[in-house]
Amino acid sequence: MGAEPTSERTTKTTRRSVLLAGGLLGVSLALPDWDTWAAAMQHAPTDVPTVGPSVFESADFADLEAITAQIIPSDATSPGAREAGAARFIDRALASFFATLAPVFRAGLQDFQRGVHARYAERGTFAQLPDAEQIEWLRSVEHTPFFNAVRQLTVLGMFTSPAYGGNRDGLGWKLLGFVDQHVFAPPFGYYDRDYPGFQPSGVDKS
């Protein structure tokens, strides 16, 4: 198979560099509530069902998905949060290992939606707004606790193990160039690469 065209390879490298070098990930990980999410993820089960949504009504889910799609948008060469199922991850997380945070999150979403209705009364829901108006509104609320929470969870849903219900087909990992494989350390080495006990994250071990 031939090499990628230079322009496409450059675009992918540039986007990956932005994510890794403190652009999106740097901002998100610096937020005050990151420790809350990280602690919950550490003890989360890896068999979270991916069917749903179960926490949000369809219209609410559509709004949430539209927000995530603006936080990590897709482009001509690589997928974004929508394609990676970040909103699905958020829904499943709030229905399971982040369940204690669900009431506050839903209240934040309702307040967000009321603001959208007040400003764009004739335009419909947030998901129905054109991109320019979605971005305009998100910029006006980007410092609110609700938006910060969605941003953190979107990053988790984009780049965490697919076993938690996000990062569909490993799309986030592919964007970063990460390969889910066994990490060898002394006294083990390359000769153990076929060890039968290892399964990539999100793979059915039954």
List the defining traits of the structure above.
single chain; 206 residues; mainly alpha; elongated
What does this structure look like?
The protein is mostly helical. The chain has one domain. The protein is built from ten helices and no strands. Helix 6 crosses helix 9 and helix 7 crosses helix 9 (145-159).
- Distance between the ends: 34 Å
**Biggest sheet overview:** none
Q: Beta-sheet strand percentage?
A: under 5%
Overall, the morphology is elongated
Instruction: Output the helix-strand order.
Output: HHHHHHHHHH
Mean pLDDT: 76
Give the number of DSSP strands: 0
* Uncertain stretches of 5 or more adjacent residues: 6-32
Number of distinct helices:
10
Classify the helix fraction into a percent range: 40-55%
Q: How many structurally independent domains?
A: 1
Radius of gyration: 19 Å
Label the structural class. Answer: mainly alpha
Task: Give the arrangement of secondary structure elements.
Layout: H1 6-20, H2 24-29, H3 34-42, H4 58-71, H5 81-84, H6 86-95, H7 102-119, H8 131-141, H9 145-159, H10 171-176
Summarize the model shown.
This protein has 206 residues and is mainly alpha-helical. Helix content is 52%, strand content 0%.
